[in-house]
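Quarterly update from the structural biology core.
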Amino acid sequence: MSQHINELFDKDGNLIGALLTAEAWTAVRDQVMTALGVSETPTVQEKPEPLSDWEELIKYWDFPYPVDMDVACDNCGNETADWSKDDPRRFRLTSANLAGLVSFKCMNCQAKVAKKHFKDKIATECTPYQEEKITSKEGLY
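Predicted structure, tokenized:
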């Protein structure tokens, strides 16, 4: 074969793929992407809210204060007394864990609101949404 292409075979000798050099890939990338119908900008599907993680935190709640359901965005002023009862949601649960860290996405401005539950207090942080991402720090699966 060519010095630019290495064919990959399984243990039975069946062709399973090909490895291209950077030079070869640069030459054929556009044609391959078009032929396979692959879009340049991947469509990101939003994951479902991790409500089971939230329910597990509530189940093992051992803080000296009651469960708090209020969320407020310092970025745009959006707020709710109970995020779980809003229809449509003003804030979307993005993560929750037993350590007491609960994160939300503001549906108005896309900011991240993190609530850190400590033994004696709740600390809230609001991080504005950034349109421009550092792509080297993004994980694609």
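The first strand starts at residue 5 and ends at 9.
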